[in-house]
Automatic annotation (TrEMBL):
Coiled coil: none annotated. This is Protein kinase domain-containing protein. It holds the Pfam family Pkinase. Residues 86-357 form the Protein kinase domain. SMART domains: S_TKc (SM00220). Residues 1-11 have a biased composition (Basic residues). It comes from the Eukaryota. InterPro entries: Prot_kinase_dom, Ser/Thr_kinase_AS. Residues 1-25 are annotated as: Disordered. It comes from Paramecium sonneborni. One of its GO terms (molecular function) is ATP binding. The lineage of its organism: Eukaryota, Sar, Alveolata, Ciliophora, Intramacronucleata.
Length: 464
């Protein structure tokens, strides 16, 4: 017996009572054994708790994350507590790295949503903790609110982790899906929604947050088409510059230089290789408004380099049947948001003060047939059969962010991807993964339409 168990045993000693009846002796012995077992179990539980606390602190130290007392109210390292507190319901959606489910808080019946991410990369867990900490500080009616974060990290030969992010449940869908369902859609409706987008951007910038990936897919809309909430802050930049400088408007900018975001909605300065600031969100807002009023992208191309060239040259048009019905004020606002020079681009407050946003707009329907056709194409894009060849599919994967598709299918241990179905979820690529596209080989399956074998000579870790 080891010394530790010997010490534990010495904590419990019993004197034998002079009992003559054998039955009573056996009962007493059973009671003593049960009591000793319960006490040892309690000690082991306490020691286990201490070990777990040490493991948590070691893990946080390893990923270079500090949590204060307030953080521990909302960030938990015990999934059993999540299971006790919430009951899971239907799946609401599946993203690139996570599954979102509807959940109900048992104590009060409150409906919430939970995104579950399974990963073997500590960096992903770190980013999710930091993102949650930052988003927890934001409180705005047009930004999805974070509630709690549950983490389980299992050390081992191949460590694995599960992260549950509990957040506000928005009873709606992506903005364009809701717009498509509306019987009446006019500049008046677009103005209401776009004003809310600008209010959220203004609040984010005032709180030293630059979203960096504003696009229709990241804007949830209530089913009545009257209110929005911005979500998905995976690549957002948060800073505590206010501690040093005070007022953002007086001391300028949130400085960034990382290549990130979705190309079709990204500002030209992101591709320059130098510093850029939070005005990139206003460019993205301009692209969003352009699409809200026409269903088309201002900058579009089958090839990534051509798309970036168009953005950097600020080449776009507002002509055609749809644009004939759009007001001059709306076009003026778009033009002032899609300014190449960030200094000439409208700030959130200037955009909110623009006549198109401040005044009631025309309630006449925009050309529904054309607009709806464009939006359907934007949401449900599929490659034409004539485009299907290895080189073209490679380009489309590159343009439409298929790094996430490759990752997801590799996790499922599948070498077959239905490109047609998968690509409709994407409109552009996260440009942080440029280097991964040169060696991709996509071969059409001879036995099935729209199925392709994807072969890539890099490991899953390169995407983590």
């Amino acid at each position: 017996m080891d010394n530790q168990n010997q010490r534990r045993k010495s904590k419990f000693s019993f004197s034998r009572a002079p009992i003559s009846d054998n039955g009573q002796t056996n009962t007493l012995q059973q009671f003593k054994n049960k009591f000793k077992g319960q006490m040892l179990q309690l000690i082991n539980k306490n020691e286990s708790g201490n070990n777990k606390e040490q493991e948590i602190q070691q893990f946080l130290s390893r990923i270079n994350v500090e949590l204060d007392v307030e953080d521990y109210k909302y960030i938990k390292f015990d999934l059993s507590e999540y299971k006790e507190k919430y009951e899971e319901g239907q799946v609401l959606g599946e993203g690139c790295i996570g599954l979102v489910k509807s959940i109900v808080r048992k104590i009060d019946g409150q409906e919430l949503a939970c995104k579950t991410v399974k990963t073997d990369a500590e960096e992903i867990v770190k980013n999710m903790i930091l993102e949650f900490k930052n988003l927890k500080k934001l409180s705005h009616r047009h930004i999805v609110k974070m509630e709690e974060l549950y983490i389980q990290w299992n050390e081992g030969f191949q460590s694995t982790g599960i992260v549950n992010v509990v957040m506000e449940k928005v009873k709606g869908s992506e903005m364009f899906e809701v717009i498509q369902k509306q019987k009446n859609y006019s500049e008046c409706t677009a103005r209401i929604l776009f004003k809310q987008i600008l209010e959220a951007i203004e609040y984010m910038h005032e709180n030293y947050c630059c979203h960096r990936d504003l696009k229709p897919n990241n804007i949830l809309c209530a089913e009545d088409g009257r209110s929005i909430k911005i979500t998905d802050f995976n690549v957002s930049k948060f800073t505590d510059g206010y501690k040093e400088f005070g007022n953002l408007n007086e001391h300028g900018k949130i400085e960034m230089w990382t290549y990130t975001g979705t190309v079709a909605f990204s500002a030209p300065e992101i591709f320059s290789g130098g510093l850029y600031n939070e005005q990139v969100d206003l460019w993205s807002a301009g692209v969003i408004l352009y699409v809200m009023l026409s269903g088309e992208l201002p900058f579009n191309s089958d090839y990534l380099n051509d798309l970036i060239d168009k953005i950097q040259q600020c080449k776009y048009e507002m002509i055609g049947q749809v644009w004939d019905q759009v007001s001059c004020q709306a076009k003026d606002l778009i033009s002032n948001l899609l300014q190449f020079d960030p200094l000439k681009r409208l700030t959130p407050q200037q955009a909110l003060d623009h006549p198109w946003v401040k005044n009631d707009q025309n309630s006449s329907d925009l050309p529904r047939d054309k607009l709806q056709k464009n939006m359907a194409r934007f949401l449900n894009w599929k490659p034409q059969e004539t485009q299907v060849n290895a080189k073209k599919i490679k380009q489309l994967c590159f343009l439409f962010g298929a790094a996430d598709i490759w990752k997801r299918h590799s996790l499922k241990h599948s070498s077959v991807s239905n490109i047609s179905e998968e690509l409709k979820k994407f409109k552009s690529i996260d440009i942080t993964s440029f280097q991964t596209t040169e060696h991709i080989q996509v071969i059409k399956d001879k036995n099935s339409n729209n199925l392709y074998h994807i072969d890539y000579p890099f490991s899953d870790e390169e995407f983590d």
